Amino acid sequence: MTDWITDLVESMGYIGILLLMFLENVFPPIPSEVIMPLAGFGAAEGKFRLALVIAAGLTGTLGGALFWYALARRIGDQRLRRWADRHGRWITLSSVEIDRLEQWFCRHRGWAVPLAHLIPGLRTLISIPAGVFAMPLPRFAVLTALGAGVWTSALAAAGYLLGDRFEGVDRYLGPVSTAIIGVLFLVYIWRVVHFRPDRRA
């Protein structure tokens, strides 16, 4: 995958960075831990400007987040509750748990949205409750840009400063990101297997 990312960034430049970061948020196994350090390394070589690399990465991330937000907003909390009543096992949520999730998200969304963008897998997932529970779009966009800006800037700066040693970023962060996504998948499977509808009012 690294070679494919390298070829796309080199052939498409900033547009390639934007596209890859969009896809990373839509399809998490595409690693930002490779995309942004690679682009930062390109900036160190004079191929790109670091500020524009960060801007392209942030724009792509925001676009991906807004994709899931819009989809979840279209679903809405009422439809989600109907799905929970019919197919709760597969979304691993009951109507009661959705109520609890909504209460938790509404209390903590101010830090949950930006913080989630620092954690692989969660930066995709956090857009779903934001949309389902109708978090105001301007606030969601600002909080997403805040968290995503920190993450993309840190990765691009690492690639820029490390120069031709940028692969060291992926050597450590890549496996960690894969492990986190794997744990999230295993948690989902565990919840599917052990799901019990909770219909308490």
UniProtKB/TrEMBL annotation:
What stretches pass through the bilayer?
Answer: 12-30, 50-72, 140-160, 172-190
Please give the GO cellular component terms listed in this UniProt entry: plasma membrane
Q: Does the keyword Transmembrane apply?
A: yes
* Superkingdom classification of source: Bacteria
Annotated keywords:
Cell membrane, Membrane, Transmembrane, Transmembrane helix
Where does it primarily localize?
A: membrane
InterPro entries, alphabetized: DedA_domain, VTT_dom
Q: Where in the cell is it found?
A: Cell membrane
Domain VTT, by residue range, is 30-160
Report how it sits in the membrane.
Multi-pass membrane protein
What is the name of this protein? Alkaline phosphatase
